[in-house]
From TrEMBL:
Cellular component GO terms held in the UniProt record: cytoplasm
Every VWFA domain range: 260-464
Gene3D superfamilies: von Willebrand factor, type A domain
Protein name as catalogued: PpkA
SUPFAM superfamilies xrefs: vWA-like
Residues annotated as signal peptide: none
InterPro entries: Thr-specific_kinase-like, VWF_A, vWFA_dom_sf
CDD domains attached to this UniProt entry: vWFA (cd00198)
GO molecular function: protein serine/threonine kinase activity
Length: 713
C-alpha cells in the first residue's frame, strides 16, 4: 500500500508537469480518465453552465424512476454540464443533462432539460431607469422581433404603439407576438433581485446605432409564484400589475418617504464667500421646515469638505473631511455648518482633489436605509485626473458616476467659473456634467455661475434646496380628501384586505399622482428649479418602485432588443456581469500587472508585451505564452469570464502595434483608466451594498455583484 501510494504521488507529479491533469489514479496507481465538463460551443476554456429553475429535482440516473439525489434545488443554482442531450432528445421531450458542482469531475446527477436553462456566460440584464422610455417588450420568437426591426421607422412606430395599446386595454389578439412585458414601475435589483440571464445575443444595427438582440430568460427567487409564467397572453394578473403607473404613491408609502441630502464642497480659500452663502440658505430653509415635525424627521443632511493632498501641501489641513458622521436634521446641520471653514493657504495648483471628496461622499457617507439620496457638489476647480499623484482616490468621473448609480445617488453639480482660470473650464465642465448625469434624466443636473456673481450662486442653492425640502413637505402634509380628483384607491397594494369577498380599502391605500404634488407652488422660472424638480421626480419614481410589491417577469424565455423600440438612442436594459469576490480579486490582480507594464512602457517606450512578460511572476502566468501572444486575449492573463462578452474592449484588442500607435498621453490615459477601474473593484469588494445571495445556502464568498460592462477593462 505504501509503495502504491508513492508511485501514485510520483505519477501525479509527472502528470501535472506534463499537463495531463485531466487524469486521476486509483489506489493501485491505475490511470483513470477523469470526467471533463462540456465547453461552450466554439470555446476551448469556457465550460457550459446551466441554471436550475425553481422546485426542480436532480436524479441519480436519467430517469424519473431513479432515486432523487437533490430535491427542490435552490432556484438559479448554477451547475456545470457533463452530458448534453442531442437535438433529437430535446424534440422528443426526453432530454436530460448530467450536471456537476465544479469543473474537476464532481458530478451530482441528472436533471430534465425542462428544469434548467443553458447559461453561456454569467451575464444578466438589469432594466434601465423607466423615465423617458417605454417598457421592454419581450417577443415569443426572434423572427417576429426581427421583422419589426426591418420595418420603416414610421411603420415600426405604429406597430409598437399597437402592441402597447393592446396590452394596456387587454385587447390581446390571437397569435400576439409579445410574450411578456417589463412592469411600468421601476425595479431595483438591490431590493428585489430579478434575474434576466442572457442565453444568447447578436449585434444588429437599429436606428443607425449598434444594438443587440438578446435571448433572455426571466426568473426570480424561490417564492411561491416563481414557476408561475408571466406570459401576458395567459396571465391577466401579471399583465394588470405590469400596467400600474410608475408615478402614483400611496399614503402608506408617503409615511415612509425619507430624503438624505449631502453637500460636497471645495473648502479651499477661494470658496469662502460661497460657503457663507450656503450657510445663509440652510438657515433660511431650517426656519421653514422646522415648523413641520414630519418633514423635519424625514430630511437629514450631511457635508463633506475636500481640498488637496495634505501630505504634500503644508498647512492645507485635510484632503477630505466628513463633518457629519451620521446624517442629521436641519437644525443640527445648520449648527455643524458654522464649523466649516476654508483653509488659510492656497493649493499648489488650480485643480483640487474633487474626486476624493466625491468618492468618500458616495461610498463612505452613512446613508440611511430606504432613503432618496442626493449629493449637491459645489466647487470652482476641476479635479486632478485619475493617475495624478494628488488624486488620492484614483477615480475618474465615469467610474464615480457608475458607483453613484449603483447606490441610487443623484448628484446636482454647481461649478463656480472664474474667468481667470478659463483654461481649466473645459475639463471642469466635462467632469461636473458627467458626475451630474443622473439616471432617468436626459441632461445633466448642472449649473455654472460666474465667480463674481455671489447672488446668483445663493439663488441657485436656494432653488435646489427648496425644491427638495418643499416637495417632501407637500407630500407629508398632503390632504387625502375623497373629493380630490388626483386621488384614487389603490388596487395593487397590500394595504387592502378582502372582507367577505369584497375589497376593503384602507386609508393607507389612497394614492395620488406625484406630479400633482412635487413642489407645485415652486415656479419654474429658474432653470435650476426645473433641473432639481426633474432630478427629484426621477429619484422618486425609482424609490417608489423599490418600496412597493412590483413583480418582475418570471419563468419565460423570450427575445428582446436592448434599445427603446420608439427611440433607439435610449437603452432599455443594461448588460451586467455577475462576479463573486474571488473573480473581482482576480480581475484586479490582472489589471495591476497590466498597469505596471503600461506605466513602464509609456515612460521607456519599450515593447508592451515584453514588459508584461516581466510582471507574470507576480500573477503565476506562463511567460512564454505572453511572449508569443499577438493580442491581450492570447496572453492567458485575461480571466475566462471576460471572454465573449457583448462589448468592445480596448484592453482585449491591445497589441504591440496598437500600443505603439498611441501617443504618450494616450498611453497614460489608458493606464489611468485601468487604474480607476481597479480602485472601483476594491470599493465594490469592500462595500456591503449590492452583493446578492443567489442561493439560500451560499457562503458570503459566493455572493455575486452585477458589474456594469462600463466598469470592465
Amino acid at each position: 500500500m505504501f509503495l502504491s501510494t508513492i508511485v501514485s504521488i510520483i505519477l501525479s507529479t509527472t502528470v501535472t508537469l506534463y499537463g495531463l491533469s485531466e487524469m486521476q489514479f486509483d489506489d493501485n496507481a491505475t490511470i483513470v480518465k477523469k470526467s471533463k465538463p462540456i465547453m461552450i460551443d466554439g470555446k476551448k476554456m469556457l465550460p457550459l453552465r446551466v441554471l436550475v429553475r425553481p422546485f426542480s429535482n436532480i436524479y441519480a440516473k436519467n430517469s424519473l424512476k431513479s432515486d432523487i439525489v437533490m430535491s427542490n434545488v435552490p432556484a438559479l443554482k448554477p451547475f456545470y454540464v457533463y452530458h448534453k442531450p442531442t437535438p433529437e432528445e430535446i424534440e422528443l421531450e426526453d432530454a436530460w443533462y448530467q450536471v456537476g458542482t465544479n469543473t474537476r469531475g464532481k458530478i451530482v446527477g441528472w436533471i430534465q432539460a425542462k428544469d434548467l436553462l443553458e447559461w453561456k456566460q454569467t451575464m444578466c440584464l438589469v432594466y434601465t431607469h423607466p423615465e423617458g422610455r417605454k417598457p421592454l417588450l419581450m417577443f415569443d420568437k426572434e423572427s417576429d422581433l426581427q421583422s419589426l426591426l426591418n420595418l420603416s421607422e414610421e411603420n415600426r412606430t405604429k406597430k409598437v404603439e399597437e402592441y402597447y395599446r393592446a396590452i394596456a386595454e387587454n385587447q390581446i389578439p390571437k397569435n400576439f407576438p409579445i410574450k411578456s412585458i417589463e412592469p411600468k414601475r421601476a425595479l431595483d435589483w438591490k431590493k428585489e433581485f430579478y434575474f434576466l440571464p442572457i442565453l444568447d445575443f447578436k449585434a444588429v444595427e437599429f436606428g443607425n446605432r449598434e444594438a443587440r438582440i438578446l435571448k433572455l430568460t426571466a426568473s426570480t427567487n424561490s417564492r411561491a409564484d416563481a414557476r408561475e409564467s408571466t406570459d401576458i397572453t395567459k396571465n391577466d394578473s401579471y399583465r394588470e400589475s405590469a400596467n400600474v403607473k410608475r408615478t402614483t404613491i400611496t399614503k402608506k408609502l408617503i409615511k415612509r418617504l425619507k430624503l438624505d441630502i449631502v453637500w460636497v464642497v471645495d473648502t479651499t480659500v477661494s470658496m469662502r464667500p460661497y460657503i457663507d452663502r450656503t450657510k445663509a440658505v440652510i438657515r433660511d430653509v431650517s426656519e421653514k421646515i422646522a415648523q413641520s415635525s414630519d418633514t423635519n424627521i424625514a430630511i437629514n443632511f450631511g457635508i463633506w469638505g475636500y481640498r488637496d493632498n495634505r501630505l504634500d501641501i503644508p498647512n492645507i489641513g485635510y484632503t477630505t473631511r466628513n463633518y457629519t458622521d451620521d446624517l442629521v436634521p436641519i437644525e443640527q446641520f445648520s449648527q455643524i455648518l458654522e464649523s466649516v471653514e476654508t483653509t488659510k493657504v492656497d493649493s499648489v495648483d488650480y485643480p483640487e482633489d474633487l474626486f476624493s471628496g466625491m468618492n468618500n461622499a458616495i461610498n463612505d457617507t452613512n446613508w440611511r436605509d430606504n432613503t432618496m439620496r442626493f449629493i449637491i457638489l459645489v466647487g470652482d476647480a476641476p479635479s486632478h485626473k485619475s493617475g495624478h499623484k494628488w488624486n488620492l482616490s484614483g477615480q475618474d468621473e465615469k467610474t464615480l458616476r457608475i458607483m453613484a448609480n449603483d447606490r441610487n445617488i443623484n448628484i446636482f453639480a454647481i461649478h463656480i467659473f472664474n474667468p481667470k482660470a478659463k483654461k481649466f473650464q473645459e475639463l471642469a465642465l466635462e467632469q461636473y456634467k458627467t458626475l451630474s448625469t443622473n439616471k432617468g434624466n436626459t441632461q445633466p443636473s448642472f449649473k455654472e455661475v460666474l465667480s463674481t456673481d455671489e447672488d446668483q450662486f445663493q439663488e441657485f442653492t436656494d432653488d435646489i434646496t427648496k425644491v427638495f425640502t418643499k416637495s417632501i413637505q407637500k407630500f407629508k402634509e398632503y390632504n387625502f380628501a375623497s373629493t380630490n380628483s388626483n386621488e384614487k384607491q389603490s388596487t395593487h397594494t397590500d394595504a387592502n384586505k378582502k372582507v367577505g369577498g369584497e375589497m376593503a380599502f384602507s386609508e393607507d391605500a389612497k394614492e395620488v399622482d406625484i406630479d400633482s404634488v412635487i413642489a407645485k407652488d415652486v415656479d419654474d422660472n429658474s432653470s435650476a428649479k426645473a433641473l432639481a424638480k426633474n432630478m427629484f421626480r426621477s429619484a422618486l419614481v425609482e424609490w417608489i418602485g423599490s418600496q412597493g410589491d412590483t413583480k418582475a417577469p418570471r419563468d419565460i424565455v423570450a427575445w428582446a432588443i436592448d434599445k427603446d423600440l420608439e427611440n433607439p438612442s435610449i437603452p432599455s436594459v443594461e448588460v451586467r456581469l455577475l462576479l463573486n469576490k474571488r473573480q473581482l480579486d482576480s480581475l484586479a490582480t490582472t489589471l495591476d500587472s497590466i498597469i505596471t507594464a503600461g506605466t513602464q512602457g509609456s515612460v521607456s517606450g519599450e515593447d508592451f508585451f515584453s514588459l508584461l512578460q516581466a510582471t507574470t511572476a507576480m500573477v503565476s502566468r506562463d511567460p512564454n505564452m505572453i511572449r508569443q501572444a499577438k493580442r491581450m486575449t492570447d496572453t492567458g492573463l485575461v480571466p475566462e469570464f471576460l471572454m465573449g462578452l457583448p462589448y468592445q474592449s480596448q484592453l482585449m484588442a491591445m497589441d504591440n502595434e496598437l500600443w505603439d500607435s498611441l501617443s504618450v498621453d494616450e498611453q497614460t490615459e489608458f493606464v489611468d483608466s485601468m487604474s480607476s477601474k481597479v480602485d472601483a473593484y476594491r470599493r465594490i469588494h469592500d462595500s456591503p451594498e449590492g452583493w446578492i445571495r443567489i442561493n439560500p445556502d451560499d457562503d458570503p464568498d459566493e455572493y455575486v455583484y452585477p458589474i456594469s460592462l462600463d466598469l470592465l477593462p
